Structures are given as structure tokens and as C-alpha cells.
Amino acid sequence: MTDQKFQPVDSSVTPRYAEIASFMRAARAELTSEVDIALVGVPLDLGATFRSGARQGPAGVREASRLIRQVNPTTGVAPYRMANIADIGDAPTHPLSVEKSVELIQDFYVKIHAAGAVPISIGGDHTVPLPILRAIAKDGPVGLVQIDSHSDTFDEFMGTKYNHATFVRRAVEEGLLDPKRIIQIGLRGTRYGDDDIVYGEKTGIRMITMDEYEEMGRANVIAEIKRVIGGGKTYFSIDIDGLDPKEAPGTGVPEPGGIMMRDAQMMLRALNGIDLIGGDICEVVPSLDPTGITCINAANLMFELTCLAAVAHTVRKK
Amino acid sequence: MTDQKFQPVDSSVTPRYAEIASFMRAARAELTSEVDIALVGVPLDLGATFRSGARQGPAGVREASRLIRQVNPTTGVAPYRMANIADIGDAPTHPLSVEKSVELIQDFYVKIHAAGAVPISIGGDHTVPLPILRAIAKDGPVGLVQIDSHSDTFDEFMGTKYNHATFVRRAVEEGLLDPKRIIQIGLRGTRYGDDDIVYGEKTGIRMITMDEYEEMGRANVIAEIKRVIGGGKTYFSIDIDGLDPKEAPGTGVPEPGGIMMRDAQMMLRALNGIDLIGGDICEVVPSLDPTGITCINAANLMFELTCLAAVAHTVRKK
Amino acid sequence: MTDQKFQPVDSSVTPRYAEIASFMRAARAELTSEVDIALVGVPLDLGATFRSGARQGPAGVREASRLIRQVNPTTGVAPYRMANIADIGDAPTHPLSVEKSVELIQDFYVKIHAAGAVPISIGGDHTVPLPILRAIAKDGPVGLVQIDSHSDTFDEFMGTKYNHATFVRRAVEEGLLDPKRIIQIGLRGTRYGDDDIVYGEKTGIRMITMDEYEEMGRANVIAEIKRVIGGGKTYFSIDIDGLDPKEAPGTGVPEPGGIMMRDAQMMLRALNGIDLIGGDICEVVPSLDPTGITCINAANLMFELTCLAAVAHTVRKK
Amino acid sequence: MTDQKFQPVDSSVTPRYAEIASFMRAARAELTSEVDIALVGVPLDLGATFRSGARQGPAGVREASRLIRQVNPTTGVAPYRMANIADIGDAPTHPLSVEKSVELIQDFYVKIHAAGAVPISIGGDHTVPLPILRAIAKDGPVGLVQIDSHSDTFDEFMGTKYNHATFVRRAVEEGLLDPKRIIQIGLRGTRYGDDDIVYGEKTGIRMITMDEYEEMGRANVIAEIKRVIGGGKTYFSIDIDGLDPKEAPGTGVPEPGGIMMRDAQMMLRALNGIDLIGGDICEVVPSLDPTGITCINAANLMFELTCLAAVAHTVRKK
Amino acid sequence: MTDQKFQPVDSSVTPRYAEIASFMRAARAELTSEVDIALVGVPLDLGATFRSGARQGPAGVREASRLIRQVNPTTGVAPYRMANIADIGDAPTHPLSVEKSVELIQDFYVKIHAAGAVPISIGGDHTVPLPILRAIAKDGPVGLVQIDSHSDTFDEFMGTKYNHATFVRRAVEEGLLDPKRIIQIGLRGTRYGDDDIVYGEKTGIRMITMDEYEEMGRANVIAEIKRVIGGGKTYFSIDIDGLDPKEAPGTGVPEPGGIMMRDAQMMLRALNGIDLIGGDICEVVPSLDPTGITCINAANLMFELTCLAAVAHTVRKK
Amino acid sequence: MTDQKFQPVDSSVTPRYAEIASFMRAARAELTSEVDIALVGVPLDLGATFRSGARQGPAGVREASRLIRQVNPTTGVAPYRMANIADIGDAPTHPLSVEKSVELIQDFYVKIHAAGAVPISIGGDHTVPLPILRAIAKDGPVGLVQIDSHSDTFDEFMGTKYNHATFVRRAVEEGLLDPKRIIQIGLRGTRYGDDDIVYGEKTGIRMITMDEYEEMGRANVIAEIKRVIGGGKTYFSIDIDGLDPKEAPGTGVPEPGGIMMRDAQMMLRALNGIDLIGGDICEVVPSLDPTGITCINAANLMFELTCLAAVAHTVRKK
User: Fold this and answer.
1) Domain D23-317 classification at class level
2) Which of A92, A231, B20, C121 is the most exposed place for a label (fewest CB within 10 A)?
3) Mean pLDDT within D235-258
4) Other C-beta atoms within 10 Å of E4: how many?
5) Residue C17 and residue A51: Cβ atoms within 8 Å?
6) How far apart are CA B260 and CA B151, in angstroms?
């Protein structure tokens, strides 16, 4: 049915609860040029300013993703038939230094990029996208779709430039992201002040608060995403706290009144065909997730990102 | 106020937290011809292919259903004034064999059917409806309203015909269900392949995916349910995973992006008057439900099914 | 930026997880006439008829409210710049007598009222608003906005006049509330009978069930709230079970099919400018809240009530 | 094998997880003179001064006691072959008044006593033994074995005479307990002051603190229990907080450094033959017991008390 | 420091929380003759008669065993320097049939045995040792050290020969175990009757109840183990419910008053040098283990078994 | 009864569940020279190498310590009558840098030391004692009693000198601790290698493993503690993982087979009269503590340390 070498564990042969957990039961493999889409964990929470524990995010999502199957129910995309997809393990991190971790992560993604693979990652706190972008967007600014309750455009936090509230600003400053091609969806939550929003407005980031999301409706938001990112290379970053807390209680900084999983799924499915160069889901904290719903939702979003990547891979091959 | 013999515990006399838990505090009784509506537990999880624990479903729902009162807030239906409703205990099952359990369950429901009672059941995994239908639909195919994230129309799983993913197909094959009078609501979730969907299409089952549900809207879905089942005898089966995982994390195979309790309640309330011959709620796993919301929602859905059964009972008596 | 004396802990200096927990990190202070808005805990659960544990409500919300910041994302209201807001601790209660607790609470709020402060309270079960209203509405009946799944207009429960199901009726009888200026939003849940609803209809309380809420839509509900309460003094009481159980599993009597946090937030934000004399959030039970979402949502609603109070304070000062 | 009428559910026929939960799967029956040992729930937490929730104690223990079998592994006692043992349901209580509850409980146990049954009860907070003793020890003072971390000999708490810290003192004052025949085991925990201990010393209660327990060793403690209670009528009350918190985290006032289940079991087993007139296990709070260990241990202690009662019953019959 | 090929992940380079979870961070490998000690998961719970969920045992222990290091603190044994140890994944099982699962498991262990590896396994319910013994003890009866609260010597359960209460009897009947060389430690728990104990006595199994354990003391129990198993081939099976429930709440049938982890560790450490042909830890149910202590303890016991296997391997090589 | 100015909340007036949580309900106060014993939180987890979350330790222990009373049940010490004891809040920390945090903590304790107060602290991970010792032991090396499963004498971890596994070595190197006056109790757990133990042996640290603890018995261990620390100034550091995991599951690196709370309490009580200059309890992780037992035990140990400090204060005053 497919000529792709890497195939996930077949759940009609090996029960879902059996065998070592890999992301979505994908084949485990070392990084080589055979890998088209690399599923990667980035266990880091040293950039978190409130509740820590996102370092267990990759472990939690690997376990929860046992129930992911192989075909997208809305789009029909079957990614494992379209690309070689493998769980290549976790990026190295340093358990005691966010700065060293950022360097180690960047080095790892440089290799992924060199191998020609598109990375779909599970964080880790939302510091994680910065070293990824440094590795895969170093040839010029790319676009960004960001589902998040916070804009992550602060300049610093307590004198620190690298943390989970600053990655967008850093990436714009470093020329990795084109602010005109950034769209942020789900912004809300009580606020410290205006510093982050002013920065976004000044640089031309398209910020869609929950108020605006609700006024526009999902269909118009999807159209707006397409308009903002246009046809260029695009990265997709999901802070799980962009979802409503009832969808994702297991996160560091939950903010009520957010995006529903159904809407997140449909937004992602509507973006088939974008030139995706990578994606991540961050801020999953399993120790705060006794019902497991956060990890389950993250696993399902990982599948959606993987479908987007598989379609983009197919387009590129043509 | 009523001449029905069986009345639930009166919570204005006996506090909700007191006394042995029966379903919705209904009277406990042996099965006799006096019972019009039989509340039944079916503790079984040997048909589950991922996470087990639904064998504790009846115990969990009995405990959670202490807070159910006696009058439907939307329809005004007061079932205990319309029919003799009793918790008749659990169907016998075999803890080590799904096949023997299916036989034991069938035998038990044959007796319920012979006594003239309509069973409203709490599973147990979704193997449970098959032996129920064999007992109560043996005189000819009936209709089915199914709220579920999966169509349960697989032919087999690992060589096994009887499990929680095949009951609809088996029941159609055995002439218990009329596929033209089956409607499935809430289908979604990543998929293995097309086998189940193809079967549904081929036999004429009306499958409403979440995509279609959303496009149609609840009112049109209700109209479509009525159209499909028409005026004939109808069974109602709710796999609790038809609800969104945030409504029902305590289940074996949660699938994000599902039906909200509010919508489930309103669909059920809109079907007053259908010729209901039985109903069930399956796949509740209390050990995966630390907040208790799954059991609470199942208890409330049990009340809705009981209201439908009470109205149907009244219609039949006329 | 502000000349208000009482300022909350600055989370850009003191991390959110640090220091003793006060409501929303507000300044802790003894009650004096300097306090404009008093944040108060009322630890009581002796009025609860099903699941107890609301006595830990204030402790749970203090801890969860560490993540509240200072500016409202929709309205831009920055309450700490507009009024002196302080956590003045808990009202005294008696751990073994609901009657004595009601007296102690009333005495405490008499002092708050005398000091000229508007109280925003965290209960405690829903007996709590009665002694508050006795203290702050003693000069004539006021209006009430009530988000709740139950109308709390029973006459008594097992012979007892003071409990969590009667406060509205008592307050109307005592001339504290004007029934024509009461609006209840979110009513639902299976019912005992008609006693409470009949009382509401007879006295002219505007009861919006979930059925009606859904038919009207949020915007019309907001308009109706404004119409009912008009320009007079108004109290705002939120029983956390007015929210859907997936938003608030940690409560004594959860009722599926309720109000979403997003809608609660937007209703509150739309009422800027009402003449708020106090508000409360009751029935938070931390021991039933393993994900913490109930406490987090209560904390966010407390911020919304505080914003309303700050605007009202500013209007009054002019 | 036995001529006793009431037999528990046979777990080799009906799986442990099946059927409505009764205490230890005992037969459910109305109170009649056929019942020799009455298993009773007393759902009350209005006497608790710290963490509430013991009102769910009977429900929690009924569910957890599904795994109790029929023969004591140490003594070989098989109580169901020796006496008619039935779960007669819960004592009535008032959800809003500890005083009324105390009266209702007393009335219920008067009936049990009149029927000639020995009650083994699951509370409820530790106010519960007082009304029980008023009913079953009204003919003269009896002895008491009390496993507890607190002596419960305070005179009052905040002006209240009836609560979970005073039952022993009240019962002595009322002539229900003979202080010279009271032995308290497991006393510990930081203390308010000396009031309770002074009372115990003054009246001649034998108080064994954990310090003394450790010095004496279990065998000597058992001998001391026998010495103190002698041959007369004896009641046995277990506050589950007498156990170490790792054995019983689900309780209102846990005190580290307590008694192990193994020791509690062996103490109880060593007392075969005492003239037991009743026993209880109090202060089980299921909402604080996520691992379930507290309810499981309480269920096992209930079996031990039932074995003592069965032996005493057999002795009396001779 | 070692010439062994397979080395675990080095936690001083790769943080404990990083990378895909394998048993004790051991190298993952396909089964070949290079593997001396095979770490295996056996995900099965179809043999459980009360609470299911042991199918997730291997997943839970893999995750929890991230904190196992490389040197035994008491004996100094460093197994990875002594033998090639690898996680070879899970034995195949059938999710719907205990009989088919038993066959699949046996086939898998036949291959392990043929490859010359000693298996250390994580179940799965306690049906698991039977197919293992069929594979690795087929050349003659071996000895058994069993830590367990139940003797597992029933003849059948509800007509079923293969389940978690019968493995010892089956294995004796099939000539896989020499009853004279079986020692069972930790027996306790209320009992159904005498069938299992009589069988043990009749066949000469050495049964050490908790009563006898306590009387003998740990040192004498260790001596007795050595005496019973003598110098021959020995298998070691740990039902995690042999531990006290406070050490292992996450299991199907907890029995209070059991063995402490400290004692289990020291018993295992004292058996260095026995001719171990395999070992297992069964009945770990992660869904009932919210604190994680059961999985953590199982992980530590797995390390102890692995140390025994490494010493035995070294002895054999000489 | 006492002339001490700072008194805790009186729980016979203000219920335990009421009011803002401070450590053991102690008076909250700014640091002044009036404070004799300063209760301090140190919210830090950036030095943790496995599971994070100890930054919530102070919040968790403040809440759990509501049940601490005022008199020691074994020694009779009543610390609030002997010294002015206040909760002075949390030491400042930096959420993104362990190095900066160490500096901030040190500065804070310098002020405590200058004010003449003895600090009793709740961490935070076990990096915390180093900056404390730098502040309060800068005049010459002091003794150390350490209850811990790990010796914390590593030289570095992944190139980092300051983390939760190195504080003892750093403090010895810096002349803050006299290795001859260090005693470590409870060492166990699988090991990386010998680096830490060799350091301890070389420098003369008295290391008591669990094996030795068990051989010696508690009384001899207490005697050995007294012998090692002698009469000089002593600091007391408790890593909560020194307790057995069933006493403290809520910690980063649990190691089975550890010290019981009863033993910890009795060791502490036996040390009345030592010249205590400070103490801490570290590594409490509330997010991993669903039963709450870890926080409760930490709260009780805090009381024991406070009693020691109060006695030492009294001795010094004489």
C-alpha cells in the first residue's frame, strides 16, 4: 500500500498498550537522510516562570499517543504512506542551564535540517522554538502560525532574554521570523501591561485575541491565517495553553476562555498544502494532568502537524 | 402523586450521600413483571482492545448517580410517576471469557424481555449491546441511534468476532438491526483504514461524522435521527467516548473534538415519543476518571434514556 | 502609574510561585477605611446537602490565583490602579454550626460595610450570600445577578431554613433583594419538583434556564441582565456549579450542560459600569478538583468581579 | 456448611466488581430479630473541625470492601458461618445539624439494640460513637478499646459539646463508659495543651501514646488491653487516623508516626473472645483518598471487628 | 570499565527525563544470542478476576524505572558490567483471549530461552509466569521463590484453568515446578476457603504467611528460602501485591499487612548466587497508582532481580 | 502563659481551614531583631536533575501545616512559649537561573543571620542549604545532621557545580562544614558509581546507610549523631527523600527502603539541646503528592526542627 520504509507499529497486530512507547507508535530510528519527517522530543522546563514539569512532556505524549492511528478522518491524509516518518528520540538538553540547553537543542536541529528532515517536536517549555528556528530558518525569515494564550513577545523576564515568554521577539530580532507573516491565535489572559502587545503591533504581527476569534468565527480565522502566511515557508508552534484549560489543564500557565480542540483540529486540517518547515507543541506538563487529557490532546495535535508535514513533503517532491 | 409502586429514595428525607448506591437512587428490586423499566449494570471489559477497567462502570455510575433527581428540566418528564423503575442489579458475566460473558448477558436479558421490562443498561465495554439485542430484538430488526466516536462496524479484531469494535456489524449480520434504520452520531478519531466506513456505506448506515454534525447543526441532526429511525422499534446505544474527552476522560479510547454533554442531552430530550425498546451507556472507566465527570455525565445520560423509556412505556400502555 | 496605596505582589520581581498566597497576590491588610475593595474568604460548608469540602474554598482559590495579573484583556480595566484592593483574610465561621457561622459572617461584613469597602468574597457554600446581604443590603432591597445551576429558592431543606439552597428566598423575604431585580442564569439539572421555580415565578424573578440561554444567545442574555437590574445597587453571586462540570468538577453538586467560562467572562466584562455593591464565588471544593481547573476558574472570575467593583468605585468617586 | 440464613455474595459466582456494593458483600436486609450482626453506615461529617468529607465514608467503604472474603487468615474465624450478618443500610442523619443527627442516629441504634443485633458501623466523623453508646450501653457503663491518634476527651470545641473531639468525655459523663475500662492506643500528634490528657489521667483512662506503644511492643499492648477491659461488655472504636497517615491519608486530621495496619490487625485478632457489644471505624474521607488505601484498610478492619462480633455472638449463644 | 556491549543510557549525559523509556534505561535490542539478560514486558490483564489494568504494567514500569542507576548499594553488584542486558520489548499478547495470549507468550519465551538469555519480566497479571515456565523450565522441574499475598494454587476459577490464581498449581501439575522447592512468602488476606492452602500442604510447598514471617524474622526467612530452593535452578516471581498496599496501592487485589519494600530488597540481595533462570514482577496496575509508588517499587525490584541474574550469569560463565 | 510577642493563629478560635496559610499558622512578620526563629520558604527547583516542581514546596507545606498545634507530644516542648517565631515569607529567587538564585538566597539569609534569627526553611531543591550555610556558617565550619537518601557529595553534574547533588561537597570545600562533624542518615538507592562515597570516606563524613541504620537500630544511631556533632554549632538538613517513598512520594527522586516518619520524629526529638543554628526540609514536590502525605510529613518535621531551635534559643539566652 505504501513504499515508505518507516512504518508505525501496526495496532491490529501489536495491541496499543504493548511495546515501548514512541511518538504515535512511529518507527524508532537514528537520524539519517532517509527520514523525511522527524518526530522529536525536547525535554526542557528551565525557561518556565510559573509551574515547572514540561521536561516530562515528551515522555507523557509518547505514552498518550499510543492511540493515534494512521488516517486523518477529515482530510483523508495518510501520512505514513506519503513520507518516511520516524521518532528519532529527544534533543539533548542540560538539566541545569537554559542557556546550554538552547545551544544543545540548536545543534541537534542543525543536524535534522542538514539531513533534510522536517521536525515535528514535543516540548518542553516555549523557549524551545527559538533554537529550532535558529537551525531551520537560518536562511531567511519564515512565517509563523502560533496557537497560544500569550504572545511571547516580551523583551525579557527578570533580566533574562531566553525564556518561555520571549521566543517570538528573539526570533524576529534575529531575522528568523518575518513579523508580517506571523499570526497569533488565542491570545487572552489577564495581562501584566502592554509591552508585549505594543511590540506585536509595532512590528506588524497579526494578533487574534479570543475576543476577535469569536467575532470572526473559525472560517474567517482560517482565511486570515492563509492570508498572513501566504505561500512561503512557515513554522507552526502550538503552546498547549492556547487551548482552553478544560482541554489542557496540564500546563504551566492555564488561561480560561480559550480555543477548543475541535477548532484547533479544524484549523490545522484547513491548512493542508502550506509550506511547513516544522512544528511543535509545547508546555505540556504531565504531572499536572491527572486525567491525561492534555497529553492525549497534544498527541492528536502532533498527528495533525504530521499530516501537514506529509502533504508539504509530497508537494516538495513533485 | 403517583400510583407507581417503585419509587426512588427521597433525597429530601435521606441525604444524597446516604444509603447503599443504586442507579439514580431507584428502588432495588428483583426482576418481576411489575418492573416496567429495568436499570441494569453489565460489568465487562474483556472486549476492550486498549485501556481496560469498564468492568467497574456500573459501580462508578451507581455511586455518581446519587445526585440525579426526578424531573427532567427541559421536557418536564417525571419518569418515576409514569412507570415502575427499578435497579435490578447486574447481569452475570464471566471475568475471564468474553464469549461466556456474552452468553450469560444474553440469557439475563432474555429474562428481562420476557418480564416485559425495557432495559436501560450501564456497561461494560461496547461488546455489551450485542447480547442485549440478541435478547430483545430477536423478533426482527430494530433501529439504532448510536452516539459514538467509532462506528463499531469492524469485521473482526485480531481474528476475534466479538469485541467492542464489532457489535453493530454482528447485529446487522444477525438480523437484529436494520442498517437502514441505524444512525451513528459523533464519528471521528484518526482511523486504521476504510473497512468499517465502507461497511457502513455499503449497508446504508447513516453515519454522521463530527464534520457533518458541525455543518448540519444540532437541530438538523435531530431531524435526521427522526427521519432515519422513523416510527419503529428503536434501541439507543451511547458509547461514552462519543462525548468529547473533556466530558468523558474516563474511557478506554478517548477521541478529541467530540460531542458536548449539552448537545447529547438536547438530542435525547428531542426524541421523546420514539418507540424505545432499550438503551445503554458503555465504556465508562472509573479508574481513569479522577475528577468523576465521566461517571456524572453517564448518570445524567442514564436519566435521559430513562425519561425516553418512561414516555415510550406510557405510549404503549395507551 | 497609580496613586493607590495597596498594590499586589509584582510577579516580574517575585515569581508567581513564591511568597504566601493571598487572593490574586493582592496586598494583605487589616480592614480599615483605606480599603476600597475587600477580598474576603468565607470558609463554610455546613450548609451543603451533598458533598462537603467548600470550607477549603478560600485556601484553594488563594493558591490558584497566583497566576492572575493586573489588566483585563478585553476591557482594559486595571483595577489596582483604580482602587485600593486588599485581601483582608477570612470571615470568622464556626466549624460546627451553620447558624452561628451565619451570625459571625454577618458581623464581619457589617464591619466591612461600615469601613466603606465593597466585598468580593470566595465561599464557602451558597449559604454565604445571605449574611453578606444582611450586612450590606440592609438599607433596602438590591438587585442580584446570579450565575447558578440551581435557583436557591427552596423554602427549607429537611426543616432547615438556612442552607445552600435557600439564600435567595430568605433574602427576598427579609427585604434584602428585590425579586423584580433578580436574574438567574444557567438554571438546569434534574429537579425535585416545582417548589423553587414556582416561587421564582410568583415573585417575578427572571429565571434563564440553559434552554433559554441557548435560545437567546449570550448577547441577548447580557441585554436582559442589564434590563432586569437597571441602574440600582446590585450584588453578583456566582455558584461555581453554574459553570459546566468540565469547567468546575470541584463542586458539591455538578450539573452537566452548563455555562462555559468564556461566556461567564464575557457576561461579566459586559457589565462594566453597574453599581456593584459586592460579589461572591461559592461552592468551590478543592478536594474534588484534582486538575485544579475549578480553583483556577474561580480565581479568574474573582478578577472579573474585582474589575466590576473597581469601575463601580471609580464611578462613585466622581 | 452453615445454617446461617444471611450469606454474602459468593465471589466465585458473582465477580467481585459486579452487583450493588454492600459492606463486605454481605446480604442486604431490613433490620429484624434475625440479624445477629448489623453492618451499618453512619454518614456524618458535621462534627469535624478540620477537613470534612467523612459523610462519604460508608459509600467509600462499601465499594472498597468488595475484596473482603470470608475466612480470617490468622484466626480461622469464618463469621458468616457463625452468625447472621447483614448490611442494614445507613443510619438516618440530618445534613445540616449535628445535634439532630446525633438524635436520629441514637434512635436508629436503639432499634438495632432492641432487635438484639450487635452493630459494626462505618462513620462518619468521630462524633458517631456517642449516640451509638447511648443506645447500646444505656444499661450501665461498658469498656472501650479505642485506636486513635487523639484521645477525644476535650470538654468542648468553640463552645460546642458534641463534635469529633469529645465523644469519650461525654460518654464517661453520661455513665455510658467506665473510664477504668477505657484503653486508648496510638495517641500522638502535636497538641493544643493538656486539657484532654489531664482529663484522661484524672478519670483513670489508660492512655497508650505511640511512645509507650513502641516501648511496650505489640504483645504487651495486647496484654494491657485485655487487662484493662477485663471480662465485661466492651465497645471498640477505631478512628482511622489512629493508623499512620501512609495507611490512611484519606482522613480529616492525619498525624504522622502512627499504628501500622499489620499491628492493628494483630491486635484485633488477639482479642477473640471479648464480650464485644459493638464497634465502629470512623473518619474515613474518600475524597482525600486517591489511592483508595484508606477505604481498603477500613474495609479490612471492618472484617476484623465482624470476626470479633461473630465469636462473641457464638459465646453468648452457648 | 566493562567489556559488555549493551550499556544503559548514561544519566550523567542524558538527563533521566529524556529519551524514550526502556526498562531501567537499558539498551533496546532485538533478541539475539548476544543478549545475556532479556528485560521483557508482558502486557496482559485478561487473567485478572477483580480490578483490571495490568496490561499497562510494562509501560508504567518502563517510565518509572528512569531513576534506576547501575550499582547495587548493598551488594555492590554492577550488573551492566557483568552481562549484556537489553530491553527486548514486549511479548506478544492477544487483547481479547487469555488462552491465545498464553500461547503467544510461551512462543516468545521459547525464543528467549533458545537464545540463551535469562528473562526478567514485568507483567501483566499473575497468569504470566505459567507460559514463561513452560518455555524455560521444560527440561525438568525448577524451584520457585514467590513473594505474594496469595498462593495462586487454586484449581480453577469459575471453570477456568488459566488465570491469575492458578499458575503455581498448573506449573506443578505440568512438571515445571518441584513443589518441594517452592517457597511462598507473604501469604495473607481474608480467604475464600481452604482449597489453595490444602493443595500447598499436600504437595509440600513451603508457605510462609505474614504471621510466620513476623515470628521468624527476616533473617530466618532468608535462611529458609535458601534451604528450600537449595542449589538447583530457580525462578523468582513477585506478585506486587505481596508488598503491603502502602508500598503498592496500584494493584488489582491489595491485601493489608504485607511485606515492606526494605524487606523485599534485603531478601533479594541476600540471595546473590542462586541459580536464577528467570524472574518476574506482576500485577502492577498504573491506572490505580496516582502517586506512582507502585511503579517505582516495581522498577527497583526489577533491578534487584537483574542483579541476581547478572551474578548467576557470571557464575555460569566460569 | 507566655511573654512571647509572636503567637500562631489559635485554632480553637479560628478554624484550621480558615485564614491565609502561613507555616504552622505562625504569625506573619517582617524580619526584625524581634524574630528569634524565622520560618522561611525557598522556592527553587532549578538545581533538580530529574523531576522538577520543588518550587511549589513552600506553598504546599504552608497549606498542609494548618494542622500543626503547639506542644510536642513526646518532649513537651512548646516552642511558641519559648521564642518569638514568625513566618517571614520566602527568600527571593530567580525563576530562570540557579546561580542568581543562589546569590539572592544567600543575601536574604545574611539579613536573617544579622537579625539574630535562626532560620527553619522549606525548600526548594537540595541546592538550597549551600547559600544558607554561606550566610549563617561563615564564621567557621559547623556540624551537619543530614537525613537523606543521597550523600550530595558529587563534585559536579554535567559540568555544573551548583545543583541538588553537590551542596555538602561545596560547603566542605568552602569551609562552611566540618566534615568530621557531618553525619548522613538514610543513604541508599542504586548508585552511579563511587565518586560521592569515596569523597565522604576520604574527608571523614560519617555515612549511615540504610543497611547500617538497620543493624545499629535507632537508639544507637541517635547516640552516634550526638557523638559526631558533639557540642558545637550544628545545622540540620532534611532531604524529604531520606524518608521512605511511602512517606514522601511527592519528591523528585524517591528511593525505596528508607526512613519512617516515626523514626525521623524520634531522632529529632532525641536531639533536644543541640546548638542548632538552622534547619531545612527540601525536595518536597506538591504536584507529585496527590495524597498530600509528603507535605503533611514535611510540616510535622518543620515543627520538630522548630522545637529544637526553640530549646537551643532558650539555652543560648541563659
Assistant:
1) alpha beta
2) A231
3) 98
4) 17
5) yes
6) 18
Residue D289 in marked binding region = no
With cut-offs at 50, 70 and 90, classify the pLDDT of residue B157: confident
Share of chain E above pLDDT 70, in %: 100
Residue B244: its chain A contacts at CB < 8 A? 261-262
Cβ atoms of E90 and E57 closer than 8 Å: no
Say yes or no for a CB contact (<8 Å) between C89 and F20: yes
Would you say B137 and B176 are in contact if contact means Cβ atoms under 8 Å apart?
yes
pLDDT in tens, B35-90: 999 999 999 999 999 999 999 999 999 999 999 999 999 999 999 999 999 999 99
Q: What average pLDDT does range D37-47 have in this prediction?
A: 98
CA distances from D37 to D28, D40, D80, D118, D305 (A): 12, 10, 10, 5, 10
Interface test with B, best of E52, E97, E154, E291 (most B CBs within 10 A): E52
pLDDT, averaged across chain A: 96
- What pLDDT is attached to residue F1? 55
**E164 is an annotated ligand-binding site residue:** no
Q: Using the beta-carbon criterion (under 8 Å), do B59 and D17 form an inter-chain contact? A: yes
**How far is the C-alpha of A291 from the C-alpha of B286, rounded, in Å?**
11
Q: What is the dihedral of CA C45, C49, C51, C53, to 10 degrees?
A: 0
Burial class (CB in 10 A: 0-12, 13-18, 19+), B202: exposed
Residue C1: is its pLDDT beyond 70?
no
Instruction: Name chain C's partners: 3 or more CB pairs within 8 A.
Output: A, B, D, F
Encode pLDDT of F156-171 as tens digits.
Answer: 988 899 999 999 999 9
Q: What is the pLDDT of residue B1?
A: 55
Is B50's CB within 8 Å of A296's CB?
no
3-class DSSP state of B228: helix
Question: C273: phi > 0 → left, psi -120 to 50 → alpha, else beta; which?
Answer: left
* Cα of D52 to nearest chain C Cα, Å: 6
Residue D245: its pLDDT value, please? 98
Bridge-based pairing state of the strands F233-239 and F275-282: parallel
The Cα B263–Cα B270 span in angstroms is: 10
Contact A288 C290 (CB under 8 A): no
Q: Is pLDDT of C318 > 90?
A: no
Q: Which residues of chain F does C9 touch, with a Cβ-Cβ cutoff of 8 Å?
A: none
pLDDT number for residue F3: 85
Using a pLDDT cut of 70, give the percent of chain D over it: 100
Residue numbers in E near A62 (CB within 8 A): 20-21
What is the reported pLDDT for D195?
84
Q: Please answer yes or no on whether F13 and D158 come within 8 Å at the CB atom.
A: yes
Residue C257: CB partners within 8 Å, gap ≥ 6?
B260, B261, B262, B265, B266, B300, C188, C210, C244
- Check: CB of residue A27 under 8 Å from CB of residue A85: yes
User: Would you give the distance in Å from CA B310 to the centre of its chain?
Assistant: 15
Q: d(Cα D7, Cα B104) in Å, to the nearest integer?
A: 23
pLDDT of residue F193: 81
Domain boundaries, chain E: 23-317
Q: Name the residue of chain C whose CA is nearest to D250's CA.
A: C287
| Interatomic CA distance for residues D309 and D304, integer angstroms | 9
DSSP letter for A23, please. G
Contact C58 F18 (CB under 8 A): yes
Helix (H), strand (E) at residue B142: strand B142-147
F212 in helix, strand or coil? helix
Mention every residue, 6+ apart, whose C-beta is less than 8 A from residue D251. D51, D54, D240, D241, D245, D283, D284, D285, D288, D294
The pLDDT tens digits of the residues spanning D84-123 come to 999 999 999 999 999 999 999 999 999 999 999 999 999 9
> Distance (Å, rounded) from C-alpha D189 to C-alpha D305?
26
Chain B residues with CB under 8 Å of E97 CB are 98, 160
